[in-house]
Amino acid sequence: MNYQRLRPLLFMLPPEMAHHLAILSMKFMPPKSVASDPRLATQLAGLDLPSPIGLAAGFDKNAEVPRAMFAAGFGFVEVGTVTPLPQPGNPKPRVFRLVEDEAIINRLGFNGRGMEYVVRKLADEPLGDAPNNKPGQLGVNIGANKDSPDRSADYRKGAKRFLPLCDYLTINISSPNTKGLRDLQQGDELQHLLGEVLDERRMWHEESGRQVPVFVKLAPDLEEGPLSEALAQLVATGADGVILTNTTIDRPHLLRAQDAKQAGGLSGKPLAVRSRIILEQAVGMLKGRLPIISVGGVHDGQEVHDRLTMGATAVQCYTNMVYRGPRAPSLMADELCACMDQAGQQSLSDIKKP
Question: Before 81, cis peptide (omega within 30)?
Fold first, then answer.
């Protein structure tokens, strides 16, 4: 069915209900697999990606449909955010569509079924019977429980449980919807937290011989100085990459939708400007020392091409699926290939970076 015709009916439902229906439809009526164009193959922190277009955390919080999301055309899929214990999240309503702006505001607050549920889901449904038979790379995004007395310990617990089950691990310290979480992005707290997770990764590597990349997801609301300090800390501590960025608490002046002033994190097209600024700053600061996954307002293949040209290794998206539907990743891949054709680029390696 044409999603653009179905969308008005879906948008009559509360956003969170529509999201649950999307998960159910992907679970019981998964899309036919979309073959990736070989020109889009790339590497991210040593991981082979069939496409640089990934699914950001937040869509599949409980790892219900990673296989379906790979089939839809994503080159890598990130489930979560997963906390050690189940938690309901913030009171409803907590998700708001800004249709006129092609945006979403959410204040979900790490709602989910918890670590052990997701561990069971991933253990029971392996994505491939051999490394070369996998549809893409699976990431797990980990967080801390709202009332945890030791948030660093929560991240270490998540690392220990998921390192055997994922291809990469993302430390989410940038959600605006858990009080005090963003404080972990700076100084001694960031150093301590990273040290805990990377120590767990070292032990897993010694046990298994497998090195799992660890990424850190930062906020778009960091000023240039704190961003530079955080990135320097990631490099010094031994992280393998950075995801830029999470949702923003800022509200661009040009938002038109009625719910534009709702509290929570803003995602979608209006975040593109800030996300590009952060990407440009980080590329200049890192000078190639860490790969960057660019997130925020990545709504079509031209935007993907622009982010790669600016210096990102890969991108992630989520909100554009609300507005473009389940074919969004394959549409973006086609559009990216068209941009490459226009520029005379035979592969992603032909895209010149700063």
Answer: yes
Of the candidates 175, 275, 294, 330, the residue annotated as catalytic is 175
From residue 118, alpha-carbon distances to 61, 190, 328, 350 in Å are 9, 25, 25, 38
Does the pTM exceed 0.85? yes
Phi, psi of 296 (to 5 degrees): 115, 105
| Residues β-bridged to residue 172 | 217
pLDDT 10s digits, 162-189: 999 999 999 998 777 677 677 777 778 8
Task: Give the separation between CA 57 and CA 82, rounded to whole angstroms.
Answer: 10
Pairing of strands 241-244, 292-295: parallel
Residue 148 a catalytic site member: no
φ and ψ at residue 19, rounded to 5 degrees: -65, -45
173 and 131 Cβ atoms separated by less than 8 Å? no
Residue 316 backbone dihedrals phi, psi, to 5 degrees? -130, 155
Compute CA distances 155 → 139, 193, 200, 313, whole Å: 15, 7, 10, 25
Q: Could you give the CA distance from residue 173 to residue 178 in angstroms, rounded to a whole number?
A: 9
For residue 47, the enclosing domain spans 3-350
Domain count, the chain: 1
pLDDT tens column, 287-326: 999 999 999 999 999 999 999 999 999 999 999 999 999 9
Name the pairing type of β-strands 137-142 and 314-317. unpaired
Helix (H) or strand (E) holding 244: strand 241-244
Residue tagged 């549409």 (tokens) = 331
Tell me the CATH number at 140: 3.20.20.70
Q: What is the residue type of 24?
A: L
Q: How far is CA 318 from CA 73, 323, 343, in A?
A: 13, 10, 27
